[in-house]
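Working notes for the structural subgroup meeting. M.R. asked for a predicted model of this chain before we commit to crystallization trials. I am recording the input and output together here so anyone reviewing the notebook later can reproduce the run.

Input as submitted:
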Amino acid sequence: AAYGSEVFMAVNGTFAGYMLISDTFKPDAKEAIASLKKLGLHTVMLTGDSEDSANAVGKDAGIDEIYAKLLPEDKLNALKKVREAHGTVMFVGDGINDAPVLAGADVGAAMGSGADAAIEAADAVLNSNVDAIPQSIAIARNTNRIAWQNVIFALVIKIAVMILGLAGHANMWMAVFADTGVAMICVLNSIRILYKK
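Returned structure, recorded in token form:
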């Protein structure tokens, strides 16, 4: 069941043993993957590691789909396949090898502790905690929801006042409310997101 990179040792040309060196994932990684799945997202791992290592880590973390032994250009090709199969893709990476994929993803997010090349190529930089990934997606979805609320509310009020105006029932104060009042209500509605946990 062990996985990782093997380092063999010899003493005077005679095999003495070996060490197995493997990556460990952050303790909050499992919770972050579970949170992503609760948000209805499909998780995919693209890595240059061996298949054994990738499958062991991916299975333990609960990742849905795993691509291993990928060079940077292979990661970009795998990203295109994932996009074709599942739609919009957010890629999170921290290494120099991740820079092309971060730039090619619909949303590229680099971890703050990552390589400078990854940070430069990314659209967003997250703190080093893995749970920042589902949090950022939840914030984005909430922001999108509020933006749609504002657009729909503003259009409904403006159309209603225009219809009333055409019918001869709207006055100047209704027009002012449809313009400035609606704008202020939309701003106040947008401010709500700052106080949401």
